[in-house]
């Protein structure tokens, strides 16, 4: 019978998705801890390091690690540890900002295109066009033309992420629209805005949480690439990408200028990605079912 | 009925034929090691050469798991056989190695599945898919294999076999695909054929052809058939012996005649009693002259497929459909898939817009109203859908779902919620279900909730679009009784869409038979279904499985003269 | 089939139109005087004037757009403001390193990732699966320049197996070419392998749950037959799709890789153009890469039709 094959009990009950997945496996727990540490160290950077990350001390150029400068100094005599700690602030800010912005805009575009055919035809062509442009090229072009500030970098990184969110929302809306419960709502005389809000929007929450983490990871990465290429936030501002970009010239003399920020960057992105995967497994019943072997 | 008769001629010597399948005290548990809940708990079954054994049961009875265990196809990480034995011609397949199991498949035992649409690989020619069996298990040369396959395809009565050999599955109809599956299963003449609901996804006329085919091939090859089904009609048409299963246990086994005429267990009796009779119920007297509440006049729906070259293709999903429904009456629309019955229902509820014709609802033409002007009229007609698992929003409470309509039409929230509680009681559910979520209810209960939601707007017409088709027969009987009861109490008119003539015969006052988007015959159910005038209606009735039996009364229709006693 | 082909090609036109419009507006919609933005703060009025004439900034917006598109359609991608060399010529001089890296990354990634994905799906839930998944999440997370410098440190500086940086044309011998291209290829392959392996695994898992795979098993076919003949062909469509959409990622990766390994390719050309605000070059590079992306995805659309008979109308 048809019913035999249907999964039982599908979705979240009243409390909604819980955060239990953050400790689902040891690896994810470690990722959660790592990310928490990175966030805390960025927030409490002024207390963790007594040095000013932008203070130039020409006399102390490229000094090795010491008790005063735990990771040594860079080519301008600035404390590397302080710069790395402060650099985390920019990265995390960009990650969070890009996730929130691209999801808000993408959600709006996706909902509208999922519902109005004529908007859809136009919007999806625009989204296709945006996706066709390599995100790094687009971002460096935007930044170089409008000047390198935190805002422009954020905008430049967010634009290429929007189409992915919009397409995701649109596909969720399109498939949810076909559900009999939405048709039932139509025949119950429910208005279109209310159907969107009550019956369609909730379906997008879980995939968007997951997508949000991926956007954050990708934004942190892109920001680092921009800085690394010299097309990001101005070089005196400490960001992980900037520290590495400056370290490039001295790579053979002092590789730690690249490795420490690179390590932190990798750990941050890795943690966010792992948490995203865990969230997906926890929120997507289809995936969970697959894990159970169907 | 002749099929059923033939199968029983050789009854006496069946018991001396060699045993092909012996399942002894099989236990299957959930989990990689099978340590979890037991979904099969001590099943024993025997199938002899040339014999058809039907395993019948409702959903969750474990009938499919039994067949997958035999083939060694249980999903490895979620189910495991942990006890008993399954002997195939004397060899225990539970103890066989993977390699040995692969050798046995297709050569000694073969299986056909429920969904012919998905059971074939979509990117490989069907001929090649049959060829794979021969390449794996024989050393025949290419031309010998091809000859054997074409011969087999003719045996399963496929037309134009050379063309079909080189076709992809999506080019074939459901019936043709199931024939391919049968050809694939029987090409090496296995001793055992397991058929797991092979006709459930097919229309009745196709079902009849496939059942006849299986029966004929079995006779020619002496194959033992283990046939899994939920449909008592199918059982009556093909079984020699019947095993009734429930929740992983065997309820009772016996010959077809014993089970249908003199079941010993209560569960079997209830199961049989729940099967609606194909003989229409006596016409209900109309109290006075009831007003017409719904009229469809020459309703039509055309779908245009845009094509890049040439002119667009037009598909007439419904054409010139004229229907009349009076207060307190039930009008059935019956037909096979693609007949346009659901299109008509959805046009009438205005979920889709008809392309021609008119719809009068309670005296008001609604076919040309815009979304906005339609709003006040929507509440007069409500719909209940087929799939109980998808027709309720899983994220909102039952109470919210039921109250949604009244709130849309200006009722105060508290009033609407109080009404929701009353309605739940009306459909025989506890009033405190308002605060629970859909996943806490079974399919039948959800369908009751959907009915309550539809009734909340106090509509004049209720459209039931295959509303009981996804339910087990015992649950189906309860929901049908509920609909009948509600109609008597509220005087509501019901438009009942179904493919099942048995259901139509028991609930409808009038029926309209649809084929290819048109109504081919309509009139009082007692006349149309008992004395059909049109060839198509007769064909449908002839194809209905188990038409020779009055299951609920444990007897054959019109006495028992045509069916020899066991 | 022909109808499908023509539909796909026609669908690619508006996409390129959107790209062209976006690229065009990029400069014009940026707040401030476009000429001043390009020339920088210290520009003299004469310099500004020269830029304005060269870019046609004195004409109305729509005239600018159409005459620009007109020139594009005639193969004129513009001329560098800095060196006064036509962009097309600059690109053709520097295409070899970029193309070499991109192609070898694609080849290496597919050869490594597809088998990994198949094995992970087949051994689903075992340590092999977890290993592949872990590898793929790491590949996604560690930036290509970090991997690049780690590889340089180990293989070029510590072990001295290959030169640290630079490029040598394949036409001047395969050996020198190979030892300079191998590290960039490996560095950039990580993310691509991660992407493709992940998608292969997911697609294979989906397909392995299908009814026709059960049918294949019921026929008594061995596991490799089930995996390769039945599952892989059906899983191919999403895998190829991700190879196509991942191409955008690859282009971004090439830009970074060229900076890390000092390869004189078009990626470096672009970065230098950005830093010098050589707008015609930036514009042309975005257009060109988008064009390549759209073309590759068009080819992939056509590949669908060959892989899945249901697409041939």
TrEMBL record, chain A:
Query: Per the database record, which ranges form the ABC transmembrane type-1 domain?
Result: 88-276
Give the residue spans that cross the bilayer: 20-45, 92-116, 136-159, 257-276
Q: Which CDD domains does this entry report, sorted A to Z?
A: TM_PBP2
Subcellular location, record wording: Cell membrane
Is Transport one of the keywords?
yes
Q: Which residues, if any, are the signal sequence?
A: none
**Does the record bear Transcription regulation in its keywords?**
no
Q: Tell me the Gene Ontology biological-process terms attached to this UniProt entry.
A: transmembrane transport
Q: Which UniProt keywords apply?
A: Cell membrane, Membrane, Transmembrane, Transmembrane helix, Transport
Q: What GO cellular component term, any one, is given?
A: plasma membrane
Q: What is its membrane topology? A: Multi-pass membrane protein
Q: Which InterPro entries match?
A: BP-dependent_transpt_permease, MetI-like, MetI-like_sf
Q: Give the family this protein belongs to, as stated in its UniProt record.
A: Belongs to the binding-protein-dependent transport system permease family.
What's the protein name? Peptide ABC transporter permease
Biological source species: Tardiphaga robiniae
Per the UniProt record, the lineage of the source organism begins with: Bacteria, Pseudomonadati, Pseudomonadota, Alphaproteobacteria, Hyphomicrobiales
Automatic annotation (TrEMBL), chain C:
Q: Which residues cross the membrane?
A: 9-27, 99-122, 134-157, 177-197, 235-261, 281-307
Q: Which UniProt keywords apply?
A: Cell membrane, Membrane, Transmembrane, Transmembrane helix, Transport
Q: According to the UniProt entry, where is the signal peptide?
A: none
Extract the SUPFAM superfamilies matched here: MetI-like
Pfam families hit by this protein: BPD_transp_1 (PF00528), BPD_transp_1_N (PF19300)
Q: Does the keyword Cell wall biogenesis/degradation apply?
A: no
Question: Which locations, inside or outside the cell, does it occupy?
Answer: Cell membrane
Domain ABC transmembrane type-1 as annotated: residue spans: 95-300
Membrane topology, from the record: Multi-pass membrane protein
The record ties this protein, via InterPro entries, to:
BPD_transp_1_N, MetI-like, MetI-like_sf
Q: In its UniProt record, which GO terms are filed under biological process?
A: transmembrane transport
Q: Which GO terms describe its cellular component?
A: plasma membrane
The UniProt similarity line reads: Belongs to the binding-protein-dependent transport system permease family.
Q: What is this protein called?
A: Peptide ABC transporter
Task: Specify the species.
Answer: Tardiphaga robiniae
